[in-house]
Each structure stands twice: as structure tokens, then as C-alpha cells.
Specification:
Strand order of the largest sheet: 1-9-6-5-2-3-4
Strand content: 5-15%
Helix content: 40-55%
Distance between the termini: 35 Å
Number of helices: 13
Shape: globular
Length: 332
Amino acid sequence: MGVNLGEIVPKQRIEISDLKGKRVAIDAYNALYQFLSIIRQRDGTPLKNSRGEVSSHLSGLFYRTVNLIEQGIRPIYVFDGNPPELKFQTIEKRKEIKEEAREKYIDAKARGDFVEAKKYSQMTSSLKLGMIDSSKDLLNSMGIPFIEAPSEGEAQAAYIALRGDADLSASQDYDSILFGAPTLVRNLTITGKRKIPGKDLFVDVVPEIIQSKDVLNNLQLSREEIIQVAILIGTDYNPGGIKGIGPKKAIDIVKSGKFKEYGEFQEISELFLNPEITDKYKISFQKPIKDKIIKLLCDKYDFSELRVEKGIERMEFALENTLKQNTLDKYF
């Protein structure tokens, strides 16, 4: 969900090829939820194996990662740890929204309205423990590094980029800016065509680059002040924010020095300024292990062996081609 800063944040549309040679720390949960939401059948049912186990997340993770590798991008997935206590209200609210959407999905499906069914089904996506474990197993088999954050994955990804161990962080949420990420890329894992909800229209989804320094310079705010703006609008730690305050009004309040008149928010500010992160991680890219990938995706989740093998071949070719250009030595 994150904070809604979209209308006030300057963005630059780019081609995915512009990220060639970059190491990107990806908010793994954010990406997996996107895959679970988007990769579905016509009636909104997620992809499943013969035992009824959901596999949409693995399909997205495998094929999108292969695409990134082909583009010369080096993905580093960062998984969430335990959420801060202040986030529990948001988590409970999300559960209520999913339950309401599930009821509407069942009703629409029973009526044969597959357009409505798919719309509501996308809102029911839930990331189970087994899905997280299978995602990590897949990344291990592909030779793609992942890091387990002590708390918020987005905060850890921002730290990795801030530390210089990645060139950018990737997420759909703007919270990365609040967590201190120097550069954020959005739409990295969902580029392509996207249907506008409620309309028979599709729009192109392309990567966007957001530079923290440009955001702060453009808005003439410090990092502490843009965090204050976010708090007034509403964050995962204070959902809803202050009633009646949108981004532009929030900026005016912060610049006028009246932020403290709206409450005491030091604890929330600290969660952004000093999040729980770790520097005990290792980033190492390895060659994919074909047999393990086949065993997981094809034997366990009923993926097409031919398609998976082609994906592995594409990945291996891209890695070999990069090695020939002597640009990947430092990653192995």
C-alpha cells in the first residue's frame, strides 16, 4: 500500500534497457504480491498445480527474473522480516479488504461476470509462508541472491542501495524515498500492458526512475520534512493520516512549521529515519542449476518443461554473453 506521494513526486520514464549493468535491490514481497494479483486465469483464479497449490508467484518470479537477466540487470531480492507493531492496524485493515473482495469475487463468479470476478480476485491476493519458501527455493536454484530483512524489506533494500551494494532499489511504493533510498525504480517487475480498472482500456506500464535528491530539491523539503508530509497524508504506520489533508496541503503545513500542531508522531518518524536493518548479508550471483529449477517448477508445480528449459537457456545465454564482455567478473 505505502504512502500516496505519486502526484507530487517528479518521475522520469525510462526504458528497461537503460538499467543494463545495474544491481537492483527489489522489495520481494511487493513483487510477489504483484505476480499473485496479475497472473490469473480469465475468471480470476490464480495459477495452480494439480494439487491446488498456487503457482502464480513462481511464474512471475521465474520469467520476470529471466527477463531482467537478459536485459543485463542484476536483481537482488529482499524479503520482509517482522513488521513494526505500528503496522498491525494496516495489516488488519488489509485483511478486512481482502475478505470483502473475496465475497464480491464469489458472487461475481457465480453470476458468470468474469470481468468483475477477475477485478475482485486481484484484491484477494495473500502471500502464504509456503509461497515465500518456494520463492526462496527458486531463487537459490536460479543463482539469484536474496536477503532476509529483520523488519521492512523496503527499508533494507533502501539501505543496500544507500550503502552502495546496489545501484537502485525497486518497489511500487514511494516509502523507499522516506527510508532514504538514493534512487527508486518503479514498474520494474510489471512492465507491459495493464488494464484500467472498470474500463475496456489498456495502458503501457514502463519503468520510472525517482531520484531522492530531485524530489527534495523540487519540493524544497528535507528528508525529515517529506516524512512529515507523508505522515499527514497517511502511512502504513498511521493509515488514513489526518482527515482532509492531501499532499499539497500537507506540504503547506510542513513548510509553515505547523506540523506539530497535528499531533506527536516522533515514533513514526523514527521508523522511517532509523528503521531496523542489518549489514550482515552477502550478495553473490551464481550460475543457475537446471535440475533443481526443473524439479521445483515442473515436477512439483506442473510448469511446462519445454518453456522452463527455454527460460533457463535464455538466462544462461545472457550470463555467458555478459561474461564474454568482461563486465560480470565482479559479481562472481
